[in-house]
Design brief:
It contains four helices and no strands. By secondary structure, the protein is mainly alpha-helical.
């Protein structure tokens, strides 16, 4: 969906906006993984973490992922 909307954004800022959107969705996936882990759904949590890494590997996402793993 992000890539579809990218065509409607100003060319000068499309990549930056799309990157921030991917980062936001990646952070959301990590939060979803927390909730799934709390319910005992390790498979679902793992799937969410994989998706988070596919969406973004920004420093912010990596930090959130490390906090998830270390808790």
């Amino acid at each position: 969906a992000i890539e579809m909307f990218k065509a409607y954004l100003p060319a000068a800022s499309a990549a930056r906006i799309a990157g921030r959107a991917r980062e936001t969705y990646a952070l959301s996936a990590i939060e979803n993984a927390r909730a799934l882990r709390a319910r005992g759904d390790k498979t679902g949590a793992t799937a969410q973490l994989k998706e988070a890494l596919q969406l973004s590997r920004s420093p912010k996402v990596i930090r959130a992922l490390l906090r998830f793993v270390l808790r």
